[in-house]
Amino acid sequence: MSREKKTRAGGRRSRMATVALIGIGLLLTGGAYAGASAAMAATPSSSTTTTELTVDDGKKLFQANCATCHGMNLEGSENGPGLAGTGELAVEFQMATGRMPMQAQSPQAPQKAPQFTDEQIAAIASWVQQEGGGATFPSEEILDGGGNVAEGAELFRINCAMCHNVAGAGGALTEGKYAPSVMNTSALHLYAAMVTGPQNMPVFNDMTLTEDEKRDLISAVLYMQEQPSPGGMTLGSLGPVSEGLFVWIFGIGALVALTVWITAKSN
């Protein structure tokens, strides 16, 4: 009997040792894999150099994705205008806001998520600038928001409010076109819109608005974006349309409900 007990006890120790060895092996393997992954993530990746795109890369991207409408050499076609003279500023605006490439012909190219990375857009814009020239990026001072906000707000009311709404909420135009809201527009894209005149927007050159006035106008819009509405709910900032609808639905609706309640109580 004693010999059988020793054999069984020895067998139990052997199985536990096997389980322990397997567990230690799994821990060591997992630790080595985690360490290797962390080391790979910490080392400077060579992709930072391989993903830097050149002007030639921009040409290839343009000819593969844009030339169907705009021509192989910016000459344009029956499906799209030529891009000679538009410049890198217009290309960056149209592509970074997702307006280009267009998904389908429509009265106006809608804003959507961009289909290219910032590096790809910069490469395409550089090639268009090199081949056709045109408007370039402004200095950082114009975009810093440090202009005269009061002067800029007056310039916005005079030059922009008739389409974009006095509160910058946008508005409808003719034939299915519209002026978009500027409340989420970056300083660079505000400047690009004034200089390049996308869609139905007129071009505001230096004869119309000087660089200092553009800076003031951009500063005013940035100020509007950051400030809450002092009057409470904006109701879309659409003025008497949304405000009147609110009064009809909730104001008169509440009066009707109160009248019905009083009548029911009296009966």
Defining key terms:
single chain; 267 residues; mainly alpha; Cytochrome Bc1 Complex, Chain D, domain 2; two-stranded antiparallel sheet
Principal-axes shape call: extended
- Overall mean confidence score, pLDDT: 84
Major sheet size, sense and barrel closure: 2 strands, antiparallel
Order of helices and strands: HHHHHHHHEEHHH
CATH architecture of the domain at 140-240: Orthogonal Bundle
List how many beta strands DSSP finds: 2
CATH topology of the domain at 140-240: the name is Cytochrome Bc1 Complex, Chain D, domain 2
| Number of helical regions | 11
Major sheet: arrangement of strands: 1-2
How much of the sequence lies in strands comes to under 5%
> Cα distance, first to last residue?
99 Å
Describe the structure.
With about 270 residues, the chain is mainly alpha-helical. Among the domains are: about 55-130, Cytochrome c-like domain (Cytochrome Bc1 Complex, Chain D, domain 2), CATH 1.10.760.10; about 140-240, Cytochrome Bc1 Complex, Chain D, domain 2 (Orthogonal Bundle). The chain is about 55% helix and about 0% strand. It contains 11 helices and 2 strands; from the N terminus they run H-H-H-H-H-H-H-H-E-E-H-H-H. It has helices at about 1-40, 45-50, 55-65, 65-70, 85-95, 120-130, 150-160, 160-165, 185-195, 210-225, 240-265; strands at about 170, 180. The protein has a two-stranded antiparallel sheet with strand order 1-2. Helix 7 (about 150-160) crosses helix 10. The N and C termini lie far apart (about 100 Å). About 20% of the residues are buried.
